[in-house]
Design brief:
By secondary structure, the chain is α+β, with helices and mostly antiparallel strands. It has a domain at 31-110: Phosphoribosyl-AMP cyclohydrolase (Ubiquitin-like (UB roll), Roll), CATH 3.10.20.810. Helix content is 18%, strand content 31%. The protein contains three helices and eight strands; from the N terminus they run H-H-E-E-H-E-E-E-E-E-E.
Length: 139
Amino acid sequence: MEVSELNETEASTQLKIDFKKLLKIGTSGENVIPVVVQNAITKEVLIVAYANDEAVSETLRLGEAVFYSTSRKELWHKGATSGDILAVEEVRINCEQNSLLYLVTPKGQGACHTKDDSGKYRSSCYYRIVLGTGELKYF
């Protein structure tokens, strides 16, 4: 997806699911696994990202969420530039050891890089509801 397409998708009220995302990652040659990030207190899911071995090691070393950006092909220390650090309280792994769950305490304005109408960063990347019509509704 081009940057303008991504911005349009992030603000859209139309359903535009990227069903090719996992295929793109799978054929990129990057060794990553999905990471679900959940607020340790509220249990709200904040973001789903990817991590490689180095990102997991850095997360454990720093106690802050570090991911691997599949689009930029580099480590991404969440909040390093924005200040929206995600302090990792606990790391869990699934039964097949092919995905992780980070229970975090957000230390900034939010976890999402998009902003609401007031200009504040959203607490979660899951800020729209899919309606039965296929349209999206902000909540």
